[in-house]
Amino acid sequence: MPVHDSVTCGTGHGSGHTFLAVNSDVTPHRAVGHEPTAPARRALLRAGLTGAAALGTGVALGATPAAASPGAPSPHAGRRRPTTPAEVLRELTAGNLRWRTYREQHPDETPTVRESLTSGQHPFAVVLGCVDSRVPPELVFDQGLGDLLTVRTAGEVLDEAVLGSVAYGVLELGIPLVMVLGHQSCGAVRAAVDAKESGERLPDHIQYLADQIGPAIDHTKEGDARVDATIDANIRAVRSRLAAEPDLAAKVAAGRLAVVGARYELTSQLVHHIA
Ligand SMILES: [Zn+2]
Q: Phi/psi at 261 (nearest 5 deg)?
């Protein structure tokens, strides 16, 4: 299926908008992938390697970003890698269209890709999603190995580890897009709403989630409508907090990063933009 089909197709839940149709604030600029020869970028990569090693997680985090070896062949042979925020959104939109129309391509799973990824990675999107088993980012965007750096917490709740993981993807791997991906019928959001209404304290650690989601609760609505509106408000709140991180904000200001909110509908399998 031609990728360009996706950008004009928006049939689904709600507005039916795809990202590109509504995402006017995303401005493509200089491609991140063209940066590795700059001294500052080299220093950043070195710092990244040092930081990863110090944490003892160099292997797990992918110790060798592909950008550090400009001459190396792409591990994703034959598949063009999106390098700007707009290109990434286009790819994710196309993948979601394949997913919700049962025309998945299951890219980047071949033996060749698996082998080549042992020497590095350069995922093109950070997706901060919910832990919900019905919303795995690689599936709903029809992406494969080495494509998405995914961080998942119940209700997309932030903490230091999540912030560090997102920052790693943006600052060390040079990823040009961060997406906060909430979803319809989020149990974490419902639990937060229910706890607030009942005054009942949740078990340890689950209460932390509710406390983080709490400020987003939409008190102008009732019942299921309140939960649904709070899902959107929580996405916006998390997106705003990420976008306000100084290192990320600087990248956004330079046009090298977009931080977007999105929501997955269980009923239609559509991912759409949350402004
Ligand atoms: Zn959820």
A: -105, 145
